Backbone:
DNA sequence: GTCTATATCGGGATAGAC
DNA sequence: GTCTATCCCGATATAGAC
């Protein structure tokens, strides 16, 4: 819940985010967005000309919500181990708050990769920052300092880190049922514990000595 | 490509799997399934009474395709380290062959958790096997044998293992673009290497001494 | 069993009053 | 800017001939 009193356009965008991230592009009904925003269906078309356009706005908004914090950590000059810790901590936090966002991004990207990935790649290009390359440098430095094994591959490490943060949230409806008897609180606690768990897990696996 | 000459019902189910797993329930058009199966739209309704029913059949079929192999490994009496290795190897293999299946399962489970999770939980109940509990036992034994740290939590380990296998395939459209310049072959190779990578990564992080 | 034709309905989009 | 009424197409589903 952000603010409650905003202009119509803002209310629409917020409602649209809720519905789109929950049900995806094709599963979303304009009517449901209108209802949730407390306005009429045709107002949606007044502000955003089409469903497609509204979807685009939502997609960007979700990116904007996620990118800044995470990129800030990744582009910082913290040493590798601290950077991993900070990233995992912040990332699990933010996706726990917006649990359907990552699955939404992945699913829609899967549905229409080229059309959508453009938005993302442009975002990186604009700020002149590629998280994967940047992370590779961090790993290289840590190797030179003798902190991590020479055999460590930065891309695998990066993908591992992302996987361990995102998957448990995205697959929650499944995991909570098969491993936690569908106990919401227990799973919340599990996710909270993962911050430490994932960090130590990652660092243990790459640390020299 | 399984067999080419099968009865109409089989052709429909196969085509339906392709389309449903690719586009999800709401993104799927019956027409597209009919085209892909090389038959008429109304034949779909002849064999499966509704889209909903067809979807159910597909969902089960996908489960059946995945479950047996993976459960066979998990329920075997291999020692923990070998079990991890076998699982990771086989799992990455099978989801690489059916890359859209995991995302499909997760997304549809997210969309309608209770309606769909029932199918899954029943499947487990029928065979009287819960992978999470079983894995917990394996970890316990390994601890008693002094092979892994006492602090290792079996649920985190299980979720880590699943995350590391599934996410890189599910998020491929994204990862391949930001980390591999959208080079398909490079990413294929990356996935192939992950079998060893993930295994050693997991074992390194839990092994005692 | 397989086809063509058609019914029916839902949802995106527009027109036009206020 | 916001509403009501309506258009129109696409998609599921059914009827019925062969």
Residues:
């Amino acid at each position: 819940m952000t603010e409650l009193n905003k202009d119509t356009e803002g209310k629409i965008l917020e409602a649209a985010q809720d519905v789109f991230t929950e049900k995806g592009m094709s599963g979303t009904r304009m009517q449901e967005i209108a209802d949730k925003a407390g306005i009429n269906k045709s107002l949606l078309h007044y502000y955003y000309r089409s469903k497609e356009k509204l979807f685009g706005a939502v997609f960007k908004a979700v990116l904007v919500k996620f990118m800044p914090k995470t990129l800030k950590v990744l582009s910082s000059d913290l040493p590798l181990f601290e950077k991993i810790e900070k990233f995992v901590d912040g990332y699990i936090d933010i996706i726990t708050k917006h649990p359907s966002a990552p699955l939404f991004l992945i699913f829609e990207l899967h549905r229409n990769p080229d059309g959508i990935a453009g938005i993302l790649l442009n975002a990186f290009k604009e700020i002149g920052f590629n998280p994967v390359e940047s992370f590779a440098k961090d790993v290289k430095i840590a190797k030179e300092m003798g902190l991590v094994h020479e055999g460590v591959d930065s891309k695998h490490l990066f993908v591992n880190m992302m996987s361990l943060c995102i998957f448990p949230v995205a697959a929650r409806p499944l995991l909570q049922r098969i491993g936690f008897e569908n106990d919401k609180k227990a799973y919340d606690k599990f996710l909270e514990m993962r911050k430490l768990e994932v960090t130590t897990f990652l660092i243990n696996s790459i640390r020299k000595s």
